[in-house]
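Subject: for your reference before the review

Hello V.,

The reviewers asked for a structural picture of the protein, and I figured it would be easier to keep everything in one thread rather than splitting it across files. Below is the amino acid sequence we used in the manuscript, unchanged from the supplementary table.
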Amino acid sequence: MIHSHALVDDPQAIPADTNVWAFAHVMRGARVGRGCNIGDHAFIESGAVVGDRVTIKNAVLVWEGIRIEDDAFIGPAVTFTNDRYPRSPRMHPTPPRYADKADWLVKTTVGRGASIGAGAILCPGVHLGRYSMVAAGSVVTQDVECYSLVMGSPARQVDYVCRCGQKLAGHYLHCDCSVCGETAASRVHPNAAASATP
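And here is what came back from the structure prediction:
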């Protein structure tokens, strides 16, 4: 479903079971997966990649070079960035680094099932591990380990969480979840084969 007040440059590229709500803008060249929900005033730039079953809440900014894997949750007003040393490429004279996109574009990845709380900012080049969680208002400046909870500015790890989102009593590879019953043995180490990833 594409809302009548959404701006989708290539409606044929949006799967039938994905919702794009009012005043969202999905540019031509952005890839959006199946079963997604894209909230009001969200912006997805050409070159961004959104996996399947991703929730993108209102006013989220997803720029080129951002890859969001399946089942991720992106909270309201989350901002991604893709340039470590931004200058306007329209200034005179144009900074030489803007002659080639490879000289400034920095890629960021949100792993499968990760959650980002409202108003968080992700600096360029970070990787959020599978099922990790970023607390609301955090500024993420470095990679986030799988199943870990980070918070603050700059964001620091404070706990591990289960796939269900509840805190664990210790490391995710050693602690079962007392809430949903998921076992540590069912979680896959990040160095395991990708085909075995839950």
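For the response letter, the relevant points are probably these. DSSP finds no helices and 20 strands in the chain. The longest strand covers residues 156-160.

Happy to draft the paragraph if you're swamped.

O.
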